[in-house]
Protein 1
Amino acid sequence: TQVSGMTQSRGFRPLPGLGNRHVQSILASAKWRVPFMQKRLQPLLKASIDECWSDAEGNVLHSVYAKQPSQASALIILIHGWEGSHESVYMRSTASSCFAHGYDVLCLNLRDHGPSHSFNEGLFHAQRIDETVGVLQQILRSTEYERYHLVGFSLGGNFALRAGAEMERRCDKTLNTVNAVCPVIDPKATFAAMREGPAIYLRYFMKKWKRSLHLKIAHFPELLRAEQVDAFDSLDAMTEHLVLAHTPFESVDDYFDSYRLVPEQFADVQGAINLLWSKDDPVIPHHPDFLRFAGRNIKVELAERGGHCGFISNYWLQSYIDQWLLDKLKEQ
């Protein structure tokens, strides 16, 4: 059913045994999925090249860019979630699906993600939106496609939505669509869900965050001490220290408020926006604002199940996300 751009999803129906939200969330990034996508993945990997892009301030972001043998009419730009990268399983699944359907694909790594820890001195944080917009603008200026589509997952979905809106205000070339899967809209709620939820998520993200910080200080030892990183024993302590020491914000609350999304931010956006959330997401709690985003050019699909960026449909560990995106792209 659909009312004013809001869809209660009937498209995603996981097979028996796959309905649990934690199963869905864990399978999103599970290496077990790779053998099932191996055949589809090979053409993407064979065509992929590393390419770096700079904004006007000299900030550098890394990407992996795959072009079709003949000129494609559209470019799909994908942005991973926090502590993900172009190598994340969910990214490779969607990228290989898009490439198999004739699109050129560019997987963009945010600062300090993928192999980019040595590229820029300052640490990554969620207000690095200007450099993301600047790099996206450079990509659009440097390439010639009839259509450009941006796709983001989780925190990358938040970046994609903010970047899409900013590009319409600032840039001469803009995106045809912005597509976000389980985007963070209320950072405080997401932080609370991670802190208070199952320990497996907290351990996973803290381990990946600490690993990233160690990679960073190997190149910029003046930023932090290795023993300082190892000593962080809670997400609260880690977040507070890094926000106060390495962002312009005076409190964690101010930092979270700075990238909270509200529907009014997108009222004047002309391009199409497609949003996919699940009601049982353990990381992005179901929020009343989900319904408020639906509107003139914004379509929201809200699934009963799917976990966090999972939407695993069957025992071959295929994700509904890939078909959902292809269907949205065909509408443009």
Protein 2
Amino acid sequence: MILSGLSFIPDTRVLSSAFPLFRDQLVDAIEWAFDMPELMGEPDPTLVAVVNDYSEARALYAHSVRYAVCSAGIAEHHDQWRALLSSELAVRNYEHLTEHFGLMRGGDFHHGAPMPLPLTDELLEVTQENLKLLKSVFNGPVGIENLALAFNLDEVKRQGEFLFNLVQPIDGFILLDLHNIYCQAINFKCSAEEIVRTYPLERVREIHISGGSFADVEVDRSTTTLRCDTHDGPVPEEVFDLLDSVISRTPSLHLVVLEQLPHALQSEEQCQQFQCDFLRMRRIVNGEA
């Protein structure tokens, strides 16, 4: 059985926007960003109670935001993060744990989404070692998520194989974010299906879908428009189509998760669209589309 889940951060707006889905027992699982309370403060008790209920039902999944798995020279940070993980595992059950691929620490030159890194042997070695240290604390399956950004089309096409090599030493898995694939396809003017075929789909245990936005950026004194994985819009039709086509090719798939950031759930229209996106995702997952 493939589960349909929602992504949670320490903010009640996703929970309140999805209330009809929870009321009707349609949310099979929750993916909880367990290390974000360190940034945002302690979550609302109602949200904590829901997270704990899913933990007791063995339907809770961990998603790391702050471990910085691709970074070297931050041993103290990694030690502190693993201590946080140990404390979390003492109070909640997680069925698996996922981490972001990409640069998450580097001063103030960026905020938020991970940034790309050259796909070098040195990066492979550093990230593999950090994954092994993570795995020494978490006994369940550990996976890594593909990145929306890349330096060039060649690295877009190499990312799947690189992630496969990253998780090999820990017998890990890949979290395939289909909106990230969609962003790459638009930004590098190629086929999303072509990118998907470069991934070891037999290693995919989880899928993310989400919406996003477009941004105008200056490159070499000219303006270009980029698709961004901002989790603040409706899921594009192409992403639903991609989900429908990929599911049959992912024999180890366990969970599909809809991501949406709370600031994009302000109006009644936004909340209804969010619910409709989840219901459509669930129908595809259940083979009812």
Protein 3
Amino acid sequence: MTSPGKTDWLVTAGLLALSVIPIAAGTVRVFELGIGTEITPKNARFFAVPLPFVLHIFSATVYCVVGAFQFNASLRRRKLGWHRVSGKILVPCGLVVAFSGLWMTLFYPTGIESPEKFDGPILSAIRLLVGTAMAAFLCFGFAAVRRHDIARHSAWMIRAYALGLGAGTQVLTHLPWFIFPSIQGEMARTLFMSAGWAINLGVAQWLIWRWPH
């Protein structure tokens, strides 16, 4: 049987692994902006207004990596101040992730190359809903801890992290997209993107119900 401490570290490792591909992809894109790579229809919007994208990638990297350790109960027990100090970092980073994502959805033009060319109005509306929900969850969680309501604080923060980690799960939900190119289209893109957020939020809610304390 796996010990609780080992299980905690397995959960942290799993969350970090889920973050690797989107963080790596975003870092490569930021590097391209820095060195001035060739401008294409796929990346032109980032070169036109790079700041929201750079803020989004930087804050998402911190949010996903540091946030993964918040799920490690054994670490929290040994480092009593860790949770509070890291929380002061995570809440601002999470809000930057949410608001920069909203800005990019509202104001960045859609590219014309795959897969961006399949980002339709329904997916844009879902992105706006997810970004707004993530920001709201973080605010609810912060308000709850100010009231010393730890149970609700934990629940809201778990939900917010689940949405923030959506890009990691979307790598998995997009596997059929790459395996079967014939299914590519606006509806498939919307379904695969939405599935990533829905799965994460469903798992988060299961955790909240499973461990109400």
Protein 4
Amino acid sequence: DYLAQDARVDLINLSLASDLPSEILRDALIDARDQGTLPIAAAGNAGVASPAFPAAFPEAPAVAALGQLGQIPADALSADNHPRFLDRYGVGGWFLARFSNYGGWPSWGSAVAVAAPGVGIVSTVPDVDDRKESFAARSGTSMATPMTCGALATRLAADGDYRKLSRGRHRADRAEAILRAATLPIGTWPFFVGCGLPRAA
């Protein structure tokens, strides 16, 4: 709520997921969109055909996680995230990660919107138990969501018409429309990956 009203941000990354809805959180999402801010949420990592909350709310487009064949060392912990079913594989070696939530019902506004890289993503990690590593490979829809936010931010920064819009729900709606339109189909069902892979340019 603070970010939407005072910091006037255009996008909020929500790398979190719960099985239970929260009306307080939903009210915050509605308020963010009313202020012109688009929240983008991780679909969740239970491998089920329904996004978790808050991605299940229509105010926050849900992001599923993708992997790509040949991009992860065979001995890496994230190498076992290949799906069991062939219909989760697309072109270019892309696949829906086994753990990723997917699906949902567009008529309810809760379907996965897009899917982004989320398997074996090198990221900073907290210093826990005197561990000396600053970086580690992580997997999850929480990795795919910031990828999506970054790609969309690049698009919005180059869109003069978007930047001229006054702050309000129409601005957030325009950002979501750009997100859904600026995607690369990867050759698998929209039920799994929504509109496809977000493109920065």
